[in-house]
Description:
Chains A, B: GO terms for molecular function: DNA binding; DNA-binding transcription factor activity. Chains A, B: This is IclR family transcriptional regulator. 2 copies of one chain form a homodimer. By secondary structure, the first copy, chain A, is of the alpha+beta class. Chain A folds into 2 domains: 1-77, Arc Repressor Mutant, subunit A, CATH 1.10.10; 79-248, GAF domain (Beta-Lactamase), CATH 3.30.450. Chain A has 11 helices and 8 strands. Chain A has helices at 10-19, 30-37, 41-53, 69-75, 79-99, 141-147, 152-160, 174-187, 230-248, 271-274, 281-286, and strands spanning 57-59, 65-67, 102-109, 112-119, 134-136, 190-193, 200-208, 214-223. In chain A, β1 (57-59) and β2 (65-67) form a beta hairpin. In chain A, α1 packs across α2 (30-37), α2 packs across α3 and α5 (79-99) runs antiparallel to α9 (230-248). The interface between A and B is large, with 62 and 62 residues.
Amino acid sequence: xxxxSAGRSALSRHLxxxxxxxxxxxxxTLTQLSRRAGLPLASTHRLVTELxxxxxxxxxxxxxxxxxxxxxxxxxxxxxxxxLREIAMPYLQDVHxxxxxxxxxxxxxxxxxxxxxxxxxxxxxxxxxxxxxxLPLHASSSGLVLLAHMPSAFVDQIVNDGLFSYTxxxxxxLSELTATLSEIRSRGFVVADGYIHPDARGIAVPVFGANQxxxxxxxxxxxxxxxxxxxxxxxxxxxxxxMSLALRSAYLPPRHPQALPGGRYRPLVNSSVKSMEYLGSxxxxxxxxxxxxx
Amino acid sequence: xxxxSAGRSALSRHLxxxxxxxxxxxxxTLTQLSRRAGLPLASTHRLVTELxxxxxxxxxxxxxxxxxxxxxxxxxxxxxxxxLREIAMPYLQDVHxxxxxxxxxxxxxxxxxxxxxxxxxxxxxxxxxxxxxxLPLHASSSGLVLLAHMPSAFVDQIVNDGLFSYTxxxxxxLSELTATLSEIRSRGFVVADGYIHPDARGIAVPVFGANQxxxxxxxxxxxxxxxxxxxxxxxxxxxxxxMSLALRSAYLPPRHPQALPGGRYRPLVNSSVKSMEYLGSxxxxxxxxxxxxx
DNA sequence: TGAATACTTCCGTTCATCGGAATAGTTGCT
DNA sequence: AGCAACTATTCCGATGAACGGAAGTATTCA
Lengths: 294, 294
């Protein structure tokens, strides 16, 4: 193709457009897309038109665009995430029925927790996570559980990449982190008080797949008050045990020993994309105050 | 690009690869992908490598490919489908808790029902649907409810496109269909006995959004026996009412008056793709016996 | 009504994409 | 082990699809 100034291939352009959407801004105009994707308007127009013709984008009456259901349909065949989700769901529902607070299922993706499912009550405490949302490993209860079972080189990288602080309870040093992680390994759970929001407490336990590999974490978010958490932890533990049992009889592709191609672990999004200022979603999604811009 | 023999653009090639996966075959080798997508092996290799680098595909240890979680992540920002799903979930869970059988949420997509969510019990009766799966409108209880609120031109097209018969109870004529649809409009629900599987009964009711437009259907699949279904229907009705109420206060992009660009309604997948024999998934997914091939 | 902003179409240039062919790796059979 | 059949990967020159500046059209707002 001609003068491909921006992101190399056609695919990366298309993805740059699709990635411009996030939970905060699900409706974008052509111009916004163009700016967010860092592509010329004319090119954006052409790309967007093609994406629409394939059902990856849909058009609203006010001419803004939204992501199309086609995308969702494709995603439904993802075995890595959705196989796990399918199997885990019934148990997650059980936990939710008893605890009645945010209940979530997360996996390690790149250098974040990715939440595959979240069950909520309308009046539950505030919760930072979204389905399909990510949180840094060091700050969330689920993340810590997942991190606890990773090689130390991986932990080091997380620390080097910077430990974002949501509150003044968020873990902010390597020593604090390694202490917490070894405690998790010996005790088999974690209670994170106010790491992300002062009023929220996260409780998480690991879910094991075949040959004792940690494949996911389940967690609940409850108010950060004097309520004892032991009962909740035990419920989580029992659910996780059941899930592990169910998982053992199902084939799921191993995701955890995360390939490290050039010695480094793969970051959450393609580095080429990650580094682009205009994409912004990744870095910004972590900040306490979400600032959607065009 | 050079000698672009097959599907026009780069995007359509990429999509052809991604679409080669379905629930029955979530793991495919390069050669299988090449065959299914109808693309030269070398090209497939190149495309697949790029898709992998963007996280849209992932590689298994045995060198087969699977769809990547990135896809799922993107899909999580789809407001059309997922906004609805988010809002509907709690009520769907309530229904499921009481009924204890397959409970599902479906929307009209192209000329099919697309199921956004399904809650099941391990020991529930057989059920043809999958999350992200489709069923023809005339054959499923959800589909009939959705179809009942569409213009007659749309119904005609469905009939002209052919009414696939799963069992000898499946609706197979225009007259039968229009009779059923008008009954649905006056009664506000449908009971479909053995339309898809002789032992399964579907019960469905419509979910209304703003200004009384039908945006979805919720349904349960129960055994097709002498058990009275009135109680179940009433539970569904009440849940649908609650959903409609919740939906009224949320903005959801209107999906239903389905744009008809050239007089015809848009078929489920790009016509260019649909007509390709080698893709096969669409047509085949409807047949009683799923026949996954390379 | 006029100006600013957003969207769409046009079209000549160009380089990323294309895929045949050759090479390397794997599996299974005798 | 040796061979055959299959699968995956790399190479590379030709070429036309994708590129985006610019000009035209529609919409919004004061």
